[in-house]
Write a structure and sequence with these properties.
By secondary structure, the protein is of the alpha/beta class. The protein is built from five helices and five strands.
Length: about 210
């Protein structure tokens, strides 16, 4: 999938803010376990915490339920944070190789500090300059609860994107019983077709 330029990232952030009121959000990141049959001689590497064998589809999605980046083929036993950190996209993000918009003040806070643009994830991801996760659930202030609510609204876009993907391409509803390289190709093809269909069928929203 083509890597967005700075102008495209800015447009993505505008859409996220329009639909979730979460500023400076460039995408929602999460991992999905794609069920597969146990590969020969694999041991427990592909056995995940849900107690079945799987490959991890790590993805970043925008506010139009469109995949920005996907990483396919990590062991099912791996954590989301580890998979993302080791992905090509994660390495570029950590190394400052993505052409992201420059830090700027938040909406309605013209006199505030310049804040970086971020990708939002759940508690499984490590907090960093460009990765935002929710506050711990214990002893939250009102401000922190509101922040977590807005972050959840933004993060749900990647979860909904996974739902649309699997319901459209129903081969992902059962365990893939093919070679691992073929599993990767099937998942990648489904993601590409998903983006193609989203682009050519159009997108309807009922914005509040």
């Amino acid at each position: 999938m083509p890597e967005p330029d700075e102008r495209t990232w800015s447009h993505i952030a505008e859409l996220f803010y329009k639909r979730t009121h979460f500023p400076h959000c460039l995408g929602a990141v999460d991992g999905k376990h794609i069920r597969c049959e146990k590969p020969n001689g694999a041991g427990s590497e592909f056995y995940n915490y849900k107690q079945y064998h799987s490959l991890v589809l790590m993805a970043v999605a925008d506010a139009n339920y469109y995949f920005i980046s996907v990483d396919i083929g990590a062991y099912g036993s791996s954590s989301d944070s580890t998979v993302f950190k080791n992905s090509a996209f994660g390495k570029k993000l950590e190394g400052g190789q993505l052409i992201l918009p420059s830090p700027t003040y938040l909406p309605k806070d013209e006199n505030g500090e310049n804040m970086p643009y971020v990708f939002v994830g759940d508690e499984a991801f490590a907090l960093s300059e460009h990765i935002m996760r929710p506050y711990p659930r214990r002893n939250q202030s009102v401000t922190q609860r509101v922040f977590n609510y807005r972050l959840t609204l933004a993060r749900r876009f990647v979860e909904c994107t996974f739902g649309i993907l699997t319901n459209k391409w129903r081969i992902l509803h059962r365990a893939l019983d093919v070679k691992l390289t073929t599993c990767d190709q099937i998942i990648k093809a489904c993601c590409i077709l998903h983006n193609y269909v989203r682009k050519h069928d159009g997108i309807r929203f009922k914005d509040k």
